Every structure is written in structure tokens, then in C-alpha cells.
Amino acid sequence: VYGRATATEGAVAMALSGVRVLELAGLAPAPLCGMILADFGAQVVRVDRLSQSAAASAHGDVQARGKRSLALDLKQPQGAAVLRRLCGGADVLIEPFRHGVMERLGLGPEVLLQENPRLIYARLTGFGQTGKYAKSAGHDINYLALSGVLSKLGRKNENPYPPVNLLADFAGGGVMCALGIVIALFERARSGKGQVIDASMVEGVAYLSSFLWKSENLGLWSQPRGENLLDSGAPFYETYKTSDGKFMAVGAIEPKFYNQLIKGLGLNLDELPAQMSFSDWPEMKKKFASVFAQKTQAEWCSIFDSTDACVTPVLSFEDAASHQHNKERSSFFKNYLGEISPRPAPVLSRTPAVPSCKRDPFVGEHTEEVLLEYGFTKQEIAKLHSDETIEIKDLKASL
Fold first, then answer.
1. What is the pLDDT at residue 396?
2. Would you name the residues annotated as active-site residues?
């Protein structure tokens, strides 16, 4: 049913193979950024806090696929010194702390780039490295609010509402930061030099919304929130409940698609107001809603699936993973536990991502392995361990 993500013998190396990434453990956006790089072949090491610390157990990274874990106490001077040495042999550092934290640890970009001029130092924060809010706390909803985008989201006569934390955290944060890293790696191939990436989620989500800014004067967004073409104002760009309590999504904007929608609904175009008659939209919504409520989701699918009416079922995660179209494309895959995840996108023809199907790393599981790889001696590692600067997870003891 699902594509098994397995590296075949003699397979072409993935696009980011050989790129060494250090990801300082943090909340949602930075782990997504690291996971994207890992999915496309980078060697990503998550630098975790020691597991005794409350913060370590709190972060609960569910986006650790394909990463290894090194547990290190950065608050100790010798812990910060370890990270400095690691950065000397790394290509990318992903850093998710508020402005000033890394500088206080003696790990700011001016220090690390002096020691490794090829390092790409990616700073992923809500408000960015400068400006009035640079040192302020915030979450997706706050970044979305400051970007202007939140003001556009929501229905008529309702408060603005954020679509969970997808837009600022993940699209404007994790994905934009990953794009910045890949751009910087591409440029480094020419110049031989690394650089600092200031990835602000406010700016990332604002940039993502460029179309909204640039289409304002086209009249697409001239009405109040929830009364425009694409924000639930139009009856032909809306979701409707079916008789079995599920939903259909309608996006029939162009007249030729709209005509097919009307036909599928069993209505007569000649008896209806013009598609773009704004004043009739609320009434048309009611009419469409009453028609959609008469059949099940499956029945509507059988009516609309072979048409260009732009009508699709609103699927649960479970239904999405088993939908015929997604199955034919192997759009979802199972890991070793049989848990389903979306396949990495986009699909590259020659060097596609091969996401790991193994379990996520335990905190500190690969501490020794990674330090040896980066040139630390067994003696140095033993000393760091006895000083409680690092943590080495003994799996045999914990199984």
C-alpha cells in the first residue's frame, strides 16, 4: 500500500550526501529544517541538552527522523568548547535560540566563522536577529500576527484565527531556513565561503504571502476578512458538509469549472444569479449547502471525481494515506513501527530523498560515535564524560 523508503544497493547518493549538519535541539521549526536536510541525505547531528535537564525531556522532538543525537552541556565552558570544535568540521549549524544566547556562550558567528570560514550559520528565530522584538518570546500565532498575514485569516464577523502552527513555524520558519541553507551551500561551492543566515519567521511567512500583498490592488482582497474570493466569501470556494457528516472542498473559480460544479449539483445555471454577483453569494452558499447535505461524501466523489469541477473530499489523515491517488504516487510511507508519514517533497528524478525508516535517536545515543568522527580521542571523550559535560546513552543498560 505504502512506498517503502529503502536505499537500494548501488543507489545514487542523495542530493545532500556528505553535508555535515549540527542542529541545536529546539522546538518545532528547527527540527523540521534539520529533518528536511536529513531526508535529502545530509548527516544531521542533533545536539541535545543532557537528559537530566527538564528542557531536554520537554522538547519531545517528533521530527528527528534520520538524525543522530549527541548530548552536550553547552552551559559549561568545556561544553561550549566541544561545540566550537564540532563546528570546525561541520558545514552547517542550525541555531534556534533567541538573539544573544549563542554570543553569551562564546559561540556567536564571528567566533565560529573565524575558525571555520566555510561554516553556514543558520539562525532560526521568530523575530530575527535585530529589531525591537529580537529578544522577545513568541510563538507561531505572534509571528503570524506581526507579519500581517493573520489579519487575512478567518471567516466573516469572526476573530482572525491561525491554521494551527503550520504557517509561521513550519512554512515561514523551517522550510524557509532549509531553503536558505541550500542557497548558501550552492553559493559556497563558488566562493568557498560560508555565511550567516538570519531566518525570521515573521519575514518568512510575510515572504510566503507575497501574492496577497501583490494582489491587493487587483480587488481580490478589497472586502473585509471572510468576504473575498479565496477566504470563504465565495460560494464556489468553500467547504460543505455531506449527509454523513464529512465535508467536500469546492474550488470552482473559473467559469468553465463553475459550470461543471453547477451541473454536478443538479442545478440549472440559467436559474441562478451570475457567478460573480457578490450580493448573491450568501444566498448561494445556503443553496449549495442544502444540496451537498443530501448525499454522502462517497456519493459526491463518484459524481465529481471524473470532472473538472474542482470538487474534492476533505480527507482525514487516515483517509489521505489510503486514498487511491496518494497510494498510486506512494505519497505516504511507513516507518519500522508502521507509523505513517508524508513522503519528502518535492520528488527528484535522479537523487530523490530516502527518508529513514528507523526509530528516532535517544538523547545521547550517538555522542561517542559523533565525537570520534569529528576527531576527538577516546581519552578526551572519557574526560568529558567524567566531567558530566557530555552524556553517553548506554543502550544495553536501558533496554
1. 58
2. 139, 169
